Amino acid sequence: MFKRLKSDIRCVFDRDPAARNTFEVLTTYPGLHALLWYRFAHWFWNLGWKWLARFISGLARWLTGIEIHPAAKIGERFFIDHGMGVVIGETAEIGDDCTLYHGVTLGGTSWQKGKRHPTLGNGVVVGAGAKVLGPIEIADDARVGSNAVVLKAVAQGETVVGIPGRVVKQQKDDAEVRRAKMAEKIGFDAYGVSQEAQDPIEKAIYSLLDHIQVQDEKLERLANSLSEMGGVSIDMDMPGLDDVVLEPSDPEQAAHLKKKNSEPKPE
Ligand SMILES: CC(C)(COP(=O)(O)OP(=O)(O)OC[C@H]1O[C@@H](n2cnc3c(N)ncnc32)[C@H](O)[C@@H]1OP(=O)(O)O)[C@@H](O)C(=O)NCCC(=O)NCCS
Fold this sequence. Notes:
This protein has 267 residues and is of the alpha/beta class.
């Protein structure tokens, strides 16, 4: 239980640059309070103490402005920023690492019993004021723009905006995802230039690393095509990104990089 509480608090730092310390988060974040009340109410709901569960969620709504039905299913590291006006219906399901902003509704479109609320995958972000309605699936890493009204399923990694929700961004292809991973790992943004990088040498090195990553991928594709055409098979076995430890040998630079990587990233 305490492990979960800790991860619920830690995720606030990851997703809100304004969060300063644990005491502040514990005492001033209604989204966190609502989540804690929900976990309590959900526990009673599962024990069959349904009135008490609903009473607790009603109390939480009164205190936080956030209404979460105790029967809803919510994963780890869920964060509601600002909170006021959020409604999460009885049969809604939310995966891990999801973020909702104020005014979001995960609602139903019918009065039929049974599954009538949305299912959110992992890492989904729903912008302020958005309404996601019906038993639809919003797949992993999808993003819903603020004030959108989404009535149809959203595929993995897609961004939807507007009324009715329309897709404005498709899922990134594998290469893009790997580049982003590499960029994140060594602390620079896509296209080789970190937002905070002031030093031109630092910028140049980052650009080179980005370039090498793209070259690696091109070479690998070339080698694969060659062997498919019957040529010699070239061993392109290189250490995976997770096996490479990219740490500068200069301890000062290593400390700087470590500090930069540990800083919470803005939305
Ligand atoms: C939807 C969102 C995630 C898109 O981010 P993104 O992937 O970087 O997309 P872009 O900003 O490049 O926008 C893509 C297109 O969608 C449009 N768009 C973005 N957000 C929109 C929104 N909420 N409603 C309508 N159109 C929107 C952009 O104008 C752009 O259109 P264009 O291609 O015709 O110029 C982001 O705009 C958003 O709404 N985030 C929610 C943030 C929030 O609620 N914050 C509250 C903090 S208190």
